[in-house]
Amino acid sequence: QVQLVESGGGLVQPGGSLRLSCAASGMSFSINTMGWYRQAPGKQRELVATITTNDRTNYADSAKGRFTISRDGAKNTVYLQMNSLKPEDTAVYYCYLLYSVWGRQQSDLWGEGTQVTVSS
Fold first, then answer.
1. Residue 74 contacts by C-beta under 8 Å, 6 or more apart in sequence?
2. 113 to each of 6, 66, 106, how far by Cα in Å?
3. What is the mean pLDDT of residues 28-34?
């Protein structure tokens, strides 16, 4: 019953900014990693950024210097601040969760995806 709720996608002009949010909720569980992946038309899904509960981060080369991933442990929420957006950032962005439920092994969960469109 763990669920992800994504928000923050939309249409923005080149050079603009967006902040994506993803909140995890459900019965007792422990988060290992949260992050964001994206999939553009005709392309495979690719990593954008991830962050662990001990605040280790990982960024795609295309995101470094422009995007910042952060988290709010009290809210079980991960954020992706996207600045200096380019048309090539246009994609469906998917929230990713790696978590454990008490007495269970780690599981993966994907959000439904939120559209980010960068266009004049």
1. none
2. 7, 21, 22
3. 95
